[in-house]
Amino acid sequence: MRIRVLVAEDVDVVRDTLVALLELEDDLAVVAAVGAGDRIVPAALGSRPDVALLDVDLPGVDGLTAAAQLRERLPECRVLILTGLVRPDGLDRARAAGVSGFLVKDGPADDLVAAVRTVAHGGRVLPAQRV
Question: Which stretches make up the Response regulatory domain (predicted)?
């Protein structure tokens, strides 16, 4: 069974690249890709992803707020945060939002793919150091 993924990233080239990267994997299928935070929950309700890969800084609604909304509206969808901007309170906010994983964008592509799989199977992916 393929892992169904929603991608939320506001930069078109980054979103398209993430989708292409994930689609290279036989066990992953991108079922929705959005460029604004306020589109995450409606897209997730329509596509029923197993994992939502969310950027933190999105127009409309930020990724952590959307993560909390997903937890309420679609609790079976696990959230993996992918961010380029590391803030001191980022991990604390992510935990409070109920996310299953938190990655920084400057890591290897293989780590992202592995994190999607880990989160989909009920695991957690958190940075080794506090961010």
Answer: 4-120
